[in-house]
Amino acid sequence: MDPEKVKGTLEMHQSNPSGVCTSCISGITNEAAKEGIFLQFSKKYPDLKIVVTSVEREGVRKVGRLNFTIQNGKYLK
To answer: Which of 4, 28, 41, 71 has its CA 20 to 30 A from that of 35?
Structure first.
């Protein structure tokens, strides 16, 4: 797939109530950390905004991020 042709918004809703695992989101807020899959994918497709949301369950401890937006290797929110 040609990265220049991939544009728009990819909305992902994941079912882990603990959040996206820390290895997968590694590097999105700490440039010194090893790049996780979300950061790698975001850099490969810079014109694609990736919006991730998660199922939330009361009483479940949050380990990773539940919701975030990333584009072109940058954490937006």
So the answer is: 4
